[in-house]
Amino acid sequence: MSLPQDIKRIKYLPTAFVIFGATGDLAQNRIFPALFKLYKSGLLPDQFKVISCARTKHTSQEFREIAERSISEKDKEKFPAFYQKIEYLPLDVAQDLNLPALAQKIDSFEKGINTCPQRIFYMAISPAILEDAVGNLAKNNLHVGCKIHNNKPRIIIEKPFGQDLKSAKSLNNQLAQFFSEEQIYRIDHYLGKETIQNIFAFRFANDIFESLWNNKYIDHLQITTAEYVGVEKRGEFYDKTGALRDITQNHLLQLLTLVTMDEPQRFEPKSIEDKKLEVISSIKKLTAHEVATSTVRGQYEGYLREEKINPASQIETYALIKLAISLKRWQGVPFYLRTGKKLTGKVTSIIVQFKPKTHQFFKNFWQKPLPNHITIQIQPNEGIGIRLVSKKPGLTTQLEPVDMEFCYKTSFDVPQPEAYERLLLDVISEDQSLFLSQKIIEESWKVIDPIRQVWSSGNPPLSIYKPGSWGPAQADKLIEADGRQWLAPILTICKI
Ligand code: BG6
């Protein structure tokens, strides 16, 4: 949804919103709260039905109470009219049990409102059953949509999109048999975050930065997603996935793409997609030797004692990879992408470090020139900081770094929508700008697969790190060997 006038249009879009996996964590923690907030902000269509499906037997009334409990933990206000929009239908989409009843429910909604609603299928189910589930939707003709208005259903898929290039292609092929690319919405929820969308505005609406955004001025980039939490209750999934596939393949590569892509010609999905593809397909694929020398994989101490983890697991909970982009603009600029669980705190940030200037003029006032850098802090304490050099007040000339800061909280006195609110609204209003295409996903697996392959042969060895630290010591060694160091990824700003 790019323009304010789209909001008006949404009110008049009758919608049957079907959630498969409605009793699961994703639905309860993210989807229902997001729908509820949209409703509260008056942004859901007037004729909107949520058909919630899962295997467990519940009546609609029982399920409404479950949904209400999960929402009211986060939001104390109650809006009974919202819960009346929710219906429940026990079925098994992977085993093709009771799907005709879903078709009937949609039909009866259609009859009740006397028009053809748009159909949205949210596949909030395990990736392992996704292909079967898609096949069963088609078997029951649910992929067809309305006969009268040629209103084709949309399908929402969550990451991970496959486990590697091969399985991602197979999933895409399965989807493509029944849904066209315009009907498929692949969610990477980072793209729905307000601060990530601001990267476009920051880069392309401020000419002062764009002219410096190249290898002449930029020394390197550090992109970090650090989490304080461990694997929590997701051991079974995580132990098969690891940090590289859970975060680097999607969230971190997306951040890298947004911060390095050229300006699209127009603010529309196709233009944006072309520029993204240009950069993501230009990421150099690491050789086995580079994987051994330019990556670090770590595991936090105590991981092997977590629930549902193989006690001899070699899976990484920390991943650092150093990448290069072969486009002229980025030649010679390294990109350090790191992520880990049980680190010292929760933060996602991008730091752009500029090349140090060897000013003749100031040569007697500093031992080593102080480089400028820009920090785009995505979460928490959202903001942007620019590190400048200043004369310290006093009778002598001393130079010191100072921070110039912009904080969302103080600059805009409006609440920030959650990523899922924005993304669901975009699906309802048929805007794919913030979703991933098949091509982008395939390109990102091409970067990740060679690393994964070498890692699975035990190279480089897994480094154990202490919970609450910044990860393995090898990560410091890797960047220090390049004559660089990690910059604090947390801005001191915006804490108020
Ligand atoms: C998910 C990962 O995609 O992102 C999780 O599967 C991770 O492991 C989560 O915890 C982090 O998301 P956020 O929005 O809290 O940064």
UniProtKB/TrEMBL annotation:
Q: Where does NADP(+) bind?
A: R55, D92, V93, K159
Q: Where is the active site?
A: H251 (proton acceptor)
The answer on whether this UniProt entry bears the keyword Signal reads no
Drop me one GO molecular function for this one.
NADP binding
What EC number(s) is this enzyme filed under?
Answer: 1.1.1.49
For this protein, what reaction is catalysed?
Answer: D-glucose 6-phosphate + NADP(+) = 6-phospho-D-glucono-1,5-lactone + NADPH + H(+)
Q: Name one GO biological process term.
A: pentose-phosphate shunt, oxidative branch
HAMAP family referenced in this protein's UniProt entry, alphabetically: G6PD (MF_00966)
Q: State the similarity comment.
A: Belongs to the glucose-6-phosphate dehydrogenase family.
Q: State the function annotated in the UniProt record.
A: Catalyzes the oxidation of glucose 6-phosphate to 6-phosphogluconolactone.
Q: What's the name of the protein?
A: Glucose-6-phosphate 1-dehydrogenase
Species annotation: Candidatus Curtissbacteria bacterium RIFCSPLOWO2_01_FULL_42_50
